[in-house]
Model the fold of this input.
Amino acid sequence: MKKLHLLLIAFALFMFTLSGCSVITGIFKAGAAVGIISVIVVILLIIWIISMFRGK
Done:
């Protein structure tokens, strides 16, 4: 009975660790996507500001 109890605890710990890693992976993927979108928006703003000054 003790071995079964320890096995269940080990399994639960493994599942919590595995789900935590997948959550962190999702956060980093979202962070990378937001970073890429932010860089693109900044570049487009710079191009837009430069085109405004060249037009006059």
Summary: The chain has a mean pLDDT of 78. The radius of gyration is 24 Å. The longest helix spans residues 2-55.
